[in-house]
Amino acid sequence: MFKKVALAALMAAVVCSNGAQAGTATGTFQVTATINPSCTLGALSTYTFGTIGGTATRFDDLTSTNVAVTCSVGLPFAITLVSGNPGGPTGFQMLNGTQAMAYQLYANNNTLPQWDATAPGTYSSTGTGSAININMFGSIPIQTPSGAGWNTGNFVDTVTMTVTY
Questions:
Q1: Rounded to an integer, what distance in angstroms lies between the CA atom of residue 53 and that of residue 59?
Q2: Which among 1, 54, 59, 82 is placed 20 to 30 Å from 150, CA to CA?
Q3: Where are the domains of the chain?
Q4: pLDDT per residue over 18-66, tens digit each?
Q5: pTM, whole model, 2 decimals?
Q6: Cβ-proximal residues to 147 (8 Å cutoff; 6+ apart), any chain
Q7: What are the beta bridge partners of residue 164?
Q8: Residue 65 CB neighbour total at 10 angstroms
Q9: 39-47+55-147+154-164 — its CATH code?
C-alpha cells in the first residue's frame, strides 16, 4: 500500500509541476490606410453678365462668381473650361436663337490669365487640402452682331468645368 501512496504522490507532483508553467507567444501586425489623390469642385453657380443695352459694343463684368476647388495637399491640378457652344474668336459664345455673342472668362479682374477654351488647362495650381477659391470674371469683347443688331432676349451658354490631376 505504501507503494501505491508513494506512486500517487509522485504522479500528483509531476502533474502540478507541468501545470504551473505558463507560456507566451508574441506576434506583430500592421495597420494601414491609403489616401488616394483627389480633387473636388464646390457648387458651381450661374455666371451672369446681367442686362446689357442693345447698343453696347463692349461689356466688362467686374463682379465675379466664385469657384471652389479642393485638392489633396501637394497635388498639382489644371482646370479646363469647355463651352457648350464652342466657336467664335474666344472659343466661348452664348446663343440666342441662331445669333452668337462671344465672351471671355478670366481668373482675375479682366487680366491674364484668360480661361482659354481652345487651350485646356489655362488655370493651374497645387492643392492645399483646403478649398482654393478662384474668382471668375467675364468680358464681352467688341463684336459685330449678325443681322441688323443684337436679338433681344437671353443669350445662354452652358460651360463644363473639369479638374485634371
A1: 10
A2: 82
A3: 39-47+55-147+154-164
A4: 556 799 999 999 999 998 999 999 888 788 887 777 665 567 666 678 8
A5: 0.72
A6: 99
A7: 78
A8: 16
A9: 2.60.40.1090
